[in-house]
Amino acid sequence: MATNGLSSALTLYGARTLTLSQAAAQAGLSEAEFIEQLERRGIEVTDSERAAALGRERPARAD
Question: Highest taxon of the source (predicted)?
Answer without folding.
Answer: Archaea
